[in-house]
Amino acid sequence: MPLCFDNRSVNELPLDPVSENFVRPIVKDSIFSIVEPTPLENPRIVCVSKPALHLLGLENDEIDKDDFAEYMCGNKTFEGSRPAAHCYCGFQFGYFSGQLGDGATMYLGECINLAGERWECQFKGAGKTPYSRNADGRKVLRSSLREFLCSEANHYLGIPTTRAGAIVTSDSYVERDIRYDGHPRMERCSVTLRIAPTFIRFGSFEIFRSRDPITNQIGSSAGNTVLMEQLLDFTSRYFPDIHSTPTSPVERWASMYSEIVRRTARLVAHWQVVGFCHGVLNTDNMSIVGLTLDYGPFGFMEYFDRDFVCNLSDSDGRYSYRAQPDICRWNCMKLGEAITPKLPESAWKPLLAQFDEVYNETYITLMRQRLGLLSSQASDSNLIESLFDVMENTRSDMTKTFCILEQFEATDNLHNGESLLEALLGICAPVALQKKLIEAKANRYRPSMPPGILFSLKRLADENPQELARTFGASEPQPLVDQVNSEYAKYQTFSRLRNEATALSCRDNTENIKSEWMKWFDVFADRLRTESSPVENRRQVMKRANPRVVLRNWVAQKAILGAEAGDYSVTQRLLQTLENPYSDEWSGGEFDGVMPLDSA
Fold this sequence. Notes:
Helix content is 44%, strand content 11%. The mean pLDDT is 94. It contains 22 helices and twelve strands. The protein is of the alpha+beta class. Helix 9 (324-338) runs antiparallel to helix 10 (345-352), helix 14 packs across helix 19 (510-528) and helix 15 runs antiparallel to helix 18. The chain has helices at residues 8-12, 50-55, 60-63, 68-73, 141-157, 225-235, 240-243, 249-274, 324-338, 345-352, 354-371, 380-394, 398-405, 417-425, 431-444, 451-463, 465-471, 478-503, 510-528, 535-545, 553-564, 569-578; strands spanning 32-34, 44-48, 84-86, 89-92, 95-99, 105-112, 118-124, 139-140, 163-176, 185-196, 276-277, 299-300. It starts with 7 loop residues before the first helix and ends in a 22-residue tail after the last helix. Strands 2, 6, 7, 8, 9 and 10 form a six-stranded antiparallel beta sheet that branches. The protein has a two-stranded antiparallel ribbon with strand order 1-3. It has a two-stranded antiparallel sheet with strand order 4-5.
């Protein structure tokens, strides 16, 4: 199957000298390890994105060949490809975890298409690598389908992202405990073909970190500043304007860092505007070129909640919707720290300050489009936040609210807000669903110790921290005080949410919802009266900015259940829908609607 491979990464960056493919805790002074995919039994295509595959230079007649699935899982190899696994480290949930690496993904090579574009492609789920740790290097159908669909969905929403070209499943099986409750089941091994300009990430530069004083972990190439300089120079090629400018190395790396910060800020602004939560924003999941990378427990927010958490293992809400901008800025800071031996802190730290400016500018611009505001006013930020207050208080649907607002009109003395109330009531969570959502949220904050013990420790932490340290044999009280205060804050949140859920009753709260919206409509109407553009112009801007469909979890589950039963048509229809998310033709269709009660 013809592809024009170049493979610059493995040809120019240091390779692991150990040729055998076995798991190792440290792969020193190497960027890649050469590997081979593990074959699958009876592979077959579930779905393909032909536009994504065209990026590589594949034509439709090649995609439609009978043996295409063999190439898309590694059973057959593309001539010129050179499979390899990338070595990287990372901060996971705020703590440096040492060597991580491509434990389930494999670089295949870099393709040059007829337009002269360079695209890296890789398999996800093709078998073990030196970085697989205790895992088997495999991915299953449900997780692979989610990544495939969301990669393409985000692309068509206009969110910078890696692409997915194909998903293959098989008659090979692995054991997985889906709910981590001790009841594993056998699931089909599946492979996704991923595509991006590069899969180099923030964690690629953390292999040079010295030993961490908290976790005692160390980068796999700690202190190798020669390799760091080589990787910095290599990475600058993905920023052609910077790479081609004749400057000193430090100036070039500073310009590159600045652009990474700016791209990351723009990326998370796009997420926030549509309600996308990544779920695992560890530094090893941050793309160096500002793309959404590594789709795991992601989720599109349904009923608006600033504290929305899509990752069930994120009990502290570190990666909540609200926290994503701050976490992405923190990750940019960690990248700066990692390259400090070659780019001094005095050079990179001032550049980090751009993050907030670029984020705010991108966010407000995109939100104005969602509301059809064609001019700029200083009060727009307050208008947007007040809208989100109403959406949070009434638990309205993130996606559908903006579609309804397209019909809002304001004249000199009147507005039509009242006529939209019935539609808005239809997309607000009913009381029974609100209770389930609040109770689920409360359980994330359930303290890890009985309240009586927690209260005693809190009193000790406040009144006699030295005694607290002696009780637990600690040399310093502050880490224990911080831990107790964190647990106490969780308990307070847990109690508040439980009380909130208990206070909800089955009484009709329609009038409260109407009142909240009518107050906001009055403010919105005043703002629209300052616009000089015709109403139809405003609506056209909103229609281009407000998707009709996003990849809701319960929608993805429809495709998963169909595919696991051997029916891939649901996935194919869903992909077709996600490829045109701003079209009204999907309204009322099989992938339209708000969250069902049994999906909460």
